[in-house]
TrEMBL record:
HAMAP family, sorted: PurN (MF_01930)
Binding-site residues for (6R)-10-formyltetrahydrofolate, renumbered to this chain: 65, 90-93, 107
GO annotation, cellular component aspect: cytosol
Family recorded in the similarity comment: Belongs to the GART family.
Organism from which the protein derives: Paenibacillus algicola
Catalytic activity line of the entry: N(1)-(5-phospho-beta-D-ribosyl)glycinamide + (6R)-10-formyltetrahydrofolate = N(2)-formyl-N(1)-(5-phospho-beta-D-ribosyl)glycinamide + (6S)-5,6,7,8-tetrahydrofolate + H(+)
Protein's job: Catalyzes the transfer of a formyl group from 10-formyltetrahydrofolate to 5-phospho-ribosyl-glycinamide (GAR), producing 5-phospho-ribosyl-N-formylglycinamide (FGAR) and tetrahydrofolate.
Gene name of the record: purN
Site entry: Raises pKa of active site His: 145
SUPFAM superfamilies linked to this entry: Formyltransferase
Metabolic or biological pathway, per its Swiss-Prot or TrEMBL entry: Purine metabolism; IMP biosynthesis via de novo pathway; N(2)-formyl-N(1)-(5-phospho-D-ribosyl)glycinamide from N(1)-(5-phospho-D-ribosyl)glycinamide (10-formyl THF route): step 1/1
Protein name: Phosphoribosylglycinamide formyltransferase
Length: 203
């Protein structure tokens, strides 16, 4: 079956949603590895509890990003990983990983890209005062949150909405969208041509 590696640095609510979808049989893919740069992150605990293999590294142990990415790449190749799923992995990637996984690496971001790339996208959207925000799943191309868009969910920001409430609604939208996109991928329904992405209907 389709084999995925999830990269994550934090809470892991998206990782958990992917795992739950796998258990229900709706992911149509198997999470074979969690890659994390944060040994104490809750996501690592979630993976261990689920019996999923974890590859941990500490960036400070390396001179440059390329060095740890080469190690990650060999871990991915050893497990025959078909798709990299970034889920709150808060590091930029180099061509060491981006090139071999071109068209096979996706990210989720808590805004309607290209608005509010980078860190704290939810806070940025509230600060700017936009009335609509949302969630984007996109291919990864080496820039920060810049690759071709696969799918988006829009959410209206409610008058006076606090950051905590909006964050909760964004996370709920992410947990719906991300497992769905992974399943489309596993079904071969996502076609990438230049920057244009087409999602083929179920047949
Ligand atoms: C998610 O909201 C994800 O969209 C965001 O980090 C959070 C991770 O939550 N990613 C980015 O901001 C990437 N630029 P999680 O650890 O609970 O899945």
């Amino acid at each position: 079956s389709y084999r995925i590696a999830v990269f994550a640095s934090g809470t892991g609510s998206n990782f958990q949603a992917l795992l739950d979808a796998q258990r229900k049989g709706s992911l149509q893919a198997e999470i074979v590895l969690l890659v994390s740069d944060k040994p104490n992150a809750p996501v690592v605990e979630r993976a261990r509890n689920a019996g999923i293999e974890v590859f941990l590294f500490q960036p400070k142990d390396y001179n440059q990003r390329e060095d740890y990415e080469r190690e990650i790449l060999s871990q991915l190749e050893a497990r025959g990983v078909d798709l990299i799923v970034l889920a709150g992995y808060m590091r930029l990637l180099t061509s060491v990983l981006v090139a071999p996984y071109s068209g096979r690496m996706i990210n989720i971001h808590p805004s309607l890209l290209p608005a509010f790339a980078g860190k704290n996208a939810i806070g940025q959207a509230l600060e700017y005062g936009v009335k609509v925000t949302g969630v984007t799943v996109h291919f990864v191309d080496g820039g920060m949150d810049t690759g071709p868009v696969i799918a988006q969910t829009a959410l209206d920001i409610q008058p006076g909405e606090e950051e905590a409430a909006l964050t909760e609604r964004i996370h709920a939208a992410e947990q719906q969208l991300y497992p769905a996109v992974v399943s489309w991928f596993a079904q071969g329904r996502i076609i990438l041509e230049g920057r244009q992405v087409t999602v083929l209907p179920l047949r």
